[in-house]
Write a structure and sequence with these properties.
By secondary structure, the protein is α/β, with parallel strands linked by helices. It is 53% helix and 17% strand. It is globular, with a radius of gyration of 14 Å.
Length: 135
Amino acid sequence: MKYIQTLKNKKEFDFVYKNSKKYRSHICDICVLENKAINKFYNKFKKAQKTHTIGLSVSKKIGNAVKRNLIKRRLRMICRESLVDINLNHKQMKYIFIIITKNDIVKTPFFFLLEQVYNQLLLANKSNSRVDYES
């Protein structure tokens, strides 16, 4: 099982929200920290840039703790598998993602959720890699 760094506290989440690019869908929103701000993030919070970093935001409006934990487990598994595939294309690039869930995610089957999140992560990867090559 591959380890993924996670965002731990409110300051880290706020920094990523403020400096990120957002990708929206009806299931979840994904915030991706732009390449220029990643070094600033790691310097500010004194973290090592070992792997991709993710943050999961699951609101209490979605359901009780059992449902929220089920959603978080599913999203962590999707991120583990998806980020390995994305990392094969760009071995040098590391990303910081926040996945913000919406109410429709509870009724969504796992394989549809996998497809939607994977497509959004690919879209974010393509747009961020273009920015890297231009500068």
